[in-house]
Specification:
The complex is a heterodimer of chains A (about 375) and B (about 350).
Chain A lengths: L6 H11 L1 H17 L3 H20 L2 H5 L8 H18 L3 H29 L4 H23 L22 E3 L12 E4 L2 E4 H19 L1 H11 L1 H6 L4 H27 L1 E3 L3 H15 L9 H26 L2 H45 L1
Antiparallel strand pairs in A: 1-4, 2-3
Helix pairs in contact in A: 2-13, 3-8, 3-11, 3-13, 5-6, 5-7, 5-11, 5-12, 6-7, 6-11, 9-11, 12-13, 12-14, 13-14
Chain B lengths: L1 H18 L1 H16 L7 H20 L1 H6 L8 H17 L4 H29 L4 H22 L19 E3 L7 H4 L3 E2 L5 E2 L1 H18 L2 H11 L1 H6 L4 H27 L1 E3 L8 H10 L9 H26 L4 H17 L2 H4 L2
Antiparallel strand pairs in B: 1-4, 2-3
Classes of the chains: A mainly alpha (about 375), B mainly alpha (about 350).
């Protein structure tokens, strides 16, 4: 039996479920005219960003299915992807083969990191998100140890363009000229003068189809069961811990591939910074698309990318035109990115309490009918 | 005879277990650094002096963790909110042209209402999200810092030492506290033992006073209620304690201590860091108290003192000793690994995961 609601309650529920998305629609509705950008420019920018970021964001979906919340540990995958890219730049392998090789190198690293991360998250059930967040910071330390002190000494790197003048450690920025836009330019069509990187979009579509298929497999269903209730799943004979680790491993591996696709579009690797922000931006974009900590669909990814990046593109210019300082717009978009995550997390926790209340209301209604 | 040895060993393992393995490792590491220091040409006096200094700078911010841990709100990753209250206090005190020690007192006075208001709101928020406090606290901290970035640009400050020279408005990213409250605590009753070793008595007294207040508070009726709320909220409610009010009070206290902490930090550091400055300041404070032996739901003043000393000791000693030993500065990497490793260790303890 479902709860009978009045129209007002239904509207309130809908607004409550989509607060963040609606907020963003409002911001974009004000920001776009203020920025003064042409529709053509905005459309082409948004297309570029969909191709650049979607793969990374899709990698967040599987842990949400398994009830582990937003996987801030996706930075681990991003680091693995960057290590792959450093190697192929050193070996001078260019184009699509270079990208594929980088992905192949990143896979075992991602798998190992994913297993480790999953094991730690199993030890911290109930606070996976904050733990995965700290894991990201912790691994950043290890990553720096390996890349800044290990590469060139223990791990052979020959290219002088990569190694710091002191003889070891990778430079702050690595030029990825060899694979720059190699996937994007493989197949590009123009629609109304807007270049569309069809090949990248096909790869992303394939991944989305994989995710949709995966949800229907035995493993996918197991994950859903674990996400609903760990104890029930365990009673049903599902290996809960194992399933959770697998979900994190899949997410980490995809995050690695996603990072490689992201960086081939950008063309330069900020060795010590690129991976740190990616987690935050991906999570924020997914939440803007209407996902929550416990529910995320593929369509949330695309809606999120479009809205979040529209805000990102227009806010510096809008800030400049409104108050005369572009810096203000910069800060505004940083504030909004963090604010969105805060609001979504708070709403999720409040809703969790509220839903327990609804169960009570249903019970009361049933009793009323009987009486 | 054999029984005696066994007894000693069991007592030793008991002590080791209660003290915690990571603490022993970090303690030994620090001891090793101090022993190695003279051999690689690092002056022990300067090192100790630096360690004391950094202890004084950071101890109050670490102390800010205690009330919230006691009331069961977890680690205060939202410390930047308190820091912002402190920054507002400091900048306002300078804006109204208070100088010398008065400016420090006035900074505290100005910071207090902000800390109370912010902390109260933040406490109300945390009361609505019981169980998920830590993640939300992190993001409350981040978004408040980002929000204040906008405000620092827009607020009508006008003191020429604080605003950008060419525009005449908008605060600078770093503001010198020279002529205002630079070193007011450092120099207060400071004892110079040798040429290199100075003890910043004022900072120790400041921390000691606040620690005493917190210690005394935790032994009052309200303080005991706070501990009860933290260890068993259902029981606390049954015994007639307003759980939400007590939790909000603890958050206000934490926020206020965070505000005082950053003021103590600035007066020694010499600069007010605005904009993205407070962004990651919660992490060192959180890991310091964890190194000191606190857990996600248990913390004492001793944990604060031990933890801050160990953590800051390592931060001071690694760059100087490592630099002279292997001619590389790995201190930043070590800092990241130690501090975050410590937080991870605390988050994954089984006994605490039950809460």
């Amino acid at each position: 039996m479902t709860l009978q609601r009045t129209k007002a309650q239904k509207v309130k529920r809908f607004l409550g479920n989509n607060t963040v998305t609606i907020l963003f629609l409002v911001i974009c509705a004000f920001g776009i005219p203020l920025s003064g950008y042409s529709a053509n420019y905005l459309a082409s920018e948004v297309v570029v960003r969909i191709a650049r970021n979607s793969f990374l964001i899709v990698s967040l979906l599987i842990p949400i299915l398994a009830g582990m919340g937003l996987n801030f540990g996706m930075t681990l995958g991003a680091m693995a992807g960057q290590i792959g890219l450093i190697f192929i730049s050193d070996w001078g392998i260019v184009g699509i083969p270079g990208m594929l090789l980088a992905m192949i190198i990143s896979t075992p690293i991602s798998v190992a990191l994913g297993i480790w991360c999953g094991k730690i998250l199993n030890m911290a059930k109930g606070r996976e998100m904050v733990t995965s967040y700290i894991i990201g910071f912790f691994m950043n330390g290890i990553y720096q140890l390996v890349v800044l002190y290990g590469m060139g000494v223990i791990i052979p790197i020959r290219s002088n363009a990569l190694v710091l003048p002191r003889g070891y450690g990778i430079r702050n920025t690595v030029n990825l000229i060899g694979i720059r836009k190699s996937l994007d330019n493989l197949m590009t069509i123009r629609v109304f003068g807007i270049p569309i990187p069809l090949s990248t979009l096909i790869v992303i579509a394939l991944l989305c189809i994989f995710i949709l298929w995966f949800k229907k497999t035995k493993l996918g269903q197991d994950m859903r069961a674990v996400g609903q209730d760990m104890e029930v799943a365990r009673a049903a004979g599902i290996k809960v811990e194992h399933t959770r680790i697998v979900s994190i491993v899949i997410s980490t591996v995809f995050a690695g591939y996603g990072m490689i696709i992201y960086l081939q579009n950008i063309g330069t690797l900020n060795t010590y910074n690129s991976h740190m922000q990616i987690g935050m931006f991906s999570v924020a974009a997914l939440l803007v698309g209407g996902a929550t900590v416990s529910h995320a669909k593929v369509r949330n990814v695309f809606l999120g990318v479009i809205l979040f990046h529209l805000m990102f593109i227009v806010s510096p210019m809008a800030g400049k035109n409104l108050i005369g300082q572009a810096q203000l717009g910069e800060y505004f978009r940083v504030f909004v990115s963090y604010g969105v995550i805060t609001v979504s997390l708070v709403l999720y926790e409040v809703r969790k309490k509220h839903d327990r209340g609804i169960a009570g209301q249903i019970l009361a209604q049933e009793q009323e009918v009987k009486a | 005879m054999n029984i005696k040895v066994e007894k000693i060993i069991s007592a030793l393992t008991q002590w080791m277990r209660s003290f915690g393995l990571p603490r022993i490792i970090i303690g030994l590491f620090l001891l090793m650094l101090f022993i190695a220091a003279p051999f690689v040409g690092v002056n022990i006096g300067t090192s100790l002096s630096d360690t004391f200094n950094r202890f004084g700078m950071n101890a109050v911010m670490v102390l800010a963790m205690v009330p919230m841990i006691h009331s069961g709100c977890g680690l205060n990753f939202g410390l930047p909110l308190g820091i912002i209250a402190g920054l507002l206090g400091g900048t306002l005190s300078m804006q109204f042209n208070f100088t010398g020690p008065t400016s420090f007192l006035m900074a505290i006075v100005f910071a207090t209402p902000f800390a109370v208001i912010f902390g109260w709101g933040y406490g109300q928020l945390l009361n609505r999200v019981k169980g998920g406090e830590m993640m939300i606290a992190t993001y409350v901290g981040f978004s408040s810092v980002a929000f204040m970035c906008i405000m620092w640009l827009l607020l009508p400050y006008s003191n020429p030492t604080m605003v950008w020279g060419y525009a005449g408005k908008g605060l600078r990213t770093t503001i010198s506290t020279e002529g205002y409250y630079l070193h007011v605590l450092n120099d207060f009753l400071s004892i110079r033992i040798t040429e290199h070793l100075t003890i910043p008595t004022g900072m120790f007294l400041f921390f000691g006073l606040l620690a005493l207040i917190i210690w005394a508070f935790l032994h009052t009726k309200t303080g005991t209620a706070m501990t009860a709320v933290g260890s068993n909220p259902v029981f606390a409610r049954a015994s007639g304690i307003h759980v939400d009010n007590i939790r909000a009070l603890s958050v206000v206290m934490s926020t206020w201590l965070g505000a005082l902490g950053i003021l103590a930090y600035q007066q020694s550091f010499g600069f007010i860091q605005l904009y993205m400055g407070p962004f990651y300041m919660a992490l060192p404070a959180v890991s310091a108290i964890l190194i000191g032996g606190a857990s996600v739901n248990k913390a004492t003043i001793t944990n604060v003192i031990v933890g801050t000393f160990l953590f800051q000791g390592i931060l001071t000693m690694t760059p100087s000793v490592m630099n002279s030993m292997i001619k590389t500065d790995m201190s930043e990497v070590i800092r990241i690994i130690v501090s975050n490793g410590m937080i991870l260790y605390a988050l994954t303890r089984k006994t605490e995961a039950t809460r």
